[in-house]
Specification:
Blueprint lengths: L3 E5 L9 E10 L2 E11 L3 E2 L4 E2 L11 H24 L6 H8 L12 H15 L2 H21 L10 H14 L4 H10 L1
Antiparallel strand pairs: 1-2, 2-3, 4-5
Helix pairs in contact: 3-4
Length: 189
């Protein structure tokens, strides 16, 4: 999965003495650059990829604002590439350009709760013991049965306390589950 890093380009100083902070995403050994902010180079900390605080005798260098923006940008890029992976969307140079331009597609409507749970099961099958996988598959079957019996579709938007209450009623009243069994199902959920 591509990773984003931030650099300050001291070779491109403008008239006011500011250098661009550039985001770099590497895909297939090819760098994709985008200027996203600017700062005086002496305040840039390469190791932390952050702007250091200015001295009290100097004018404000907006370090808190810029660092917050960089953290949000980093988080947004990780979420974006993770959503691409979950939705089986290949990451291309064009997709990175769209990300830089703020043209992020809405992935929430493309992948369902059931599909996400199924993908997670496939992942756990490869990385965990058979019994762990079997237990998780049983939990998935519980949620599928609930959705079929109640004619109710679980989505990421409706995972709230009312859903928990419906699941509890379904498990105890209709399926005759004991407290421990229901607790294990919810724990995995």
């Amino acid at each position: 999965m591509p990773n984003i890093r931030f650099y300050c380009d001291k070779s491109k100083v403008n008239k006011e003495g500011f250098s661009p902070i550039r985001a770099n995403i590497v895909l297939d050994y090819r760098s994709h650059w985008q200027n996203i902010e600017k700062v005086k180079y002496r305040y840039w900390n390469n190791a932390k990829q952050k702007v250091d605080k200015n001295r009290s005798s100097e004018p404000d260098n907006r370090h808190e604002e810029i660092n917050s923006f960089l953290e949000q940008y980093d988080r947004k890029s990780k979420d974006f590439f993770n959503d691409c992976r979950l939705n089986n969307i290949p990451i291309t140079s064009e997709l990175i350009r769209q990300f830089y331009n703020g043209q992020i597609p809405d992935f929430n409507n493309k992948i369902s709760f059931n599909q996400t749970f199924s993908n997670w099961l496939d992942h756990t099958k490869q990385n965990n013991s058979y019994n762990t996988y079997r237990c998780r598959k049983t939990v998935f079957q519980f949620f599928l049965n609930f959705q079929n019996d109640k004619n109710f579709k679980i989505t990421f938007q409706n995972i709230k306390m009312p859903l928990f209450d419906q699941l509890k009623t379904y498990a105890f009243a209709e399926k005759g589950y004991m407290n421990n069994t229901f607790a294990k199902r919810i724990n995995i959920f």
